[in-house]
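ugh finaly. both done.
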Amino acid sequence: MRILLDCHEVLADFTGAALKIHGYSRKEFEALPSYIPGAWDLARQLGLSDEDFWYPINRAGEGFWRDLLMLPEAPYLIHWLDTQRLSLIEEWYIVSSPSQHTSSYAGIRAWVQEHLGMDWNRLVLTNHKHLLANPDTILIDDSESNTAQFERAGGNAILYPAWCNHLHACDDPLGYTLKNLDHSLKC
């Protein structure tokens, strides 16, 4: 079995960095009248157009992506994948959706190299994750749209609990994911 692991909101804190660059803390964001738990569209919830949302991120360039903080559960998920690699998992990759700005490609690559090692070379950058779907592949992603497309294309998917999906109230995203992953691998 092959595992494809989304980067942003599964391993790296894109939301925290995007909020910070726009002058918000998570607490301030969640206090906004426009905040809707479980709804993805950070720009709209901040009252910004797409152009206004992406402008400071694009201006920050590669550094915005390279400097994203690793989410607290990420090292445990990576460790679990590495330890299961010999028995249940054939291989695992990070599959990340870059922004439309070219700096995101280099920045995401730099983030992966910094957090997983300079020789780590299992990164796929694409906004079309469903093209990698097949019955022997599981996508772990925070996007309901990505997981649905992946399953429609013939793959298996696990929705990672995050603020931006219907599992936002889950207090143990790692436990939820590992339970579902373990079940999927044994089937």
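ok and the 2nd:
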Amino acid sequence: MKIEKSFELKHPREQVWGKLNDVRFVAECLPGASIVSDLGENRYKGRMSVKVGPMVAVFNGEIAIDSRKQDWTGVVSGKGADSGSSSRASGSMTYVLADGTSPAATHVNIVSDINLAGPLAQFSKGAIVQDIANRITAAFVTNFESRLAELSPAGEANVAPSPQEEPLDAGGLLWAVLRARLRTFFRGLFGRSSAGS
């Protein structure tokens, strides 16, 4: 499953680059994610918790980062498994930074390629996943912006980071997406009925 996203951050490219390459900082901005240990050579042990209804899947695995500042490009790759549901996940995320609409802004392009196997694979199909990806990206951008805003000019956080202990609620996201789609469907249906009468 390939997902492409782009967004703009209200911070200079140098600062955004530094923090996107700080795997612990990124994990603090992504719901359900945490870094367990540093394996060296830009490799880490990580954990991602995903809640789907009453089930909570905890993916434990490895993450690697390969960044090339000469073209402002980075690739994060990883794989993990949840022992409870026997689900497995692997994938990569490529990000490219470009100048934003102002000197103090950065445009970010992201292409993710994600593969799921096991019971959770049923959630990797269809356009609904794109909507869920939009919501996860929006949450990440909001958290990333907020954490960057906490940084002093010296680059040290004024507020202590709060790790994302709550699992990513995929079931809640799915329900929110379905509700929004149903509202749009009925609004369009009744709008057409009114226009036809």
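summary for the 2nd one i guess: The chain is about 30% helix and 40% strand.
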